[in-house]
Amino acid sequence: MSPVKQQIDNNQTSVPRHVAIIMDGNGRWAKQLGKLRVFGHQEGAKAVRRAVGFAVSREIQALTLYAFSSENWNRPAQEVTALMELFGRALDKEAPSLNKHNVRMRVVGDISRFSDRLRAKIHKAQALTENNTGLTLNIAANYGGRWDITQACQTLAKKVADGEMTPEQIDEDVIGQYVNLSDLAPVDLVIRTGGEHRISNFLLWQIAYAELYFTEVLWPDFDELVFEGALNEFAQRERRFGGTEPASSKEI
For Mg(2+), which residues are the binding ones (predicted)? Predict the structure, then answer.
């Protein structure tokens, strides 16, 4: 099945099956209050909790949150350390609640750079929730879209070298099976908070036909009303996937 055909098949509803959010604005939010950036990240964690709860209530299948990009290592060391500590505490605190609400949590990205302690917390949280059948919550941590595509290509190159497949067998469908989140519905809606209008190396492959929604709201202020506004906007979009007619009007 082609990527576009799969997109159309998976989007015959006004409610997105898969929402991805670039959570931007924690630092600016804190600065407006005259506080350290880490305070904004702490408040941002509360916004994550609200977003997850709302996604569950709206029966969204998957929610992918851009928590820490591969470029974020370039931030001041003190801020990076604080983010890692906050991530670890959030895993300890939130995993039992996620499990209680039938949420499956996964971390996507290159976690090899994280400390042994943080990786252990990630594995523990994933193991606790792996059999849940409700919302799939993906936390993109040390993630980059270019890294994602690169690791898929490296895997396929090894298969060719080992004689398991030929270069001619590699097409969009095959590559799509080896990028992250390939087992989920395609991303239908990307939300970016904080007023910036860019995707910042986030899910470059997966959002090829996603709708983009930008809001001036800073992430710590992101709540159910803002999320609902994004869904209402999505419901008004006519998705053509490169064609001339809305996908909902086509015969599959």
Answer: 24, 197, 211
Q: Domain residue spans in the chain?
A: 18-144+187-236
What string of DSSP letters covers 144-193?
Answer: -HHHHHHHHHHHHHHHHHTTSS-GGG--HHHHHTTSTTTTSPPP-EEEE-
Q: Among the options 9, 11, 72, 110, which is catalytic? A: 72
Q: Is 110 a catalytic residue?
A: no
230, 235, 237, 238: CA torsion to nearest 10: 160
Catalytic residue among 11, 24, 142, 148: 24
Residue 71, annotated ligand binder? Answer: yes
The CATH class, in words, for 18-144+187-236 is alpha beta
245 is in an annotated binding site: no
Does 25 carry a binding-site annotation? yes
Active site residue 24: yes
Average pLDDT, the chain: 92
**Is 145 labelled a binding residue?**
no
Using CA atoms, how far residue 249 sits from 69, 212, 231, 233, 239, in Å, is 38, 21, 20, 19, 10
Interval 179-205 mean pLDDT: 98
The pLDDT tens digits of the residues spanning 118-147 come to 999 999 999 999 999 999 999 999 999 999
The yes-or-no verdict on residue 1 having pLDDT over 60 is no
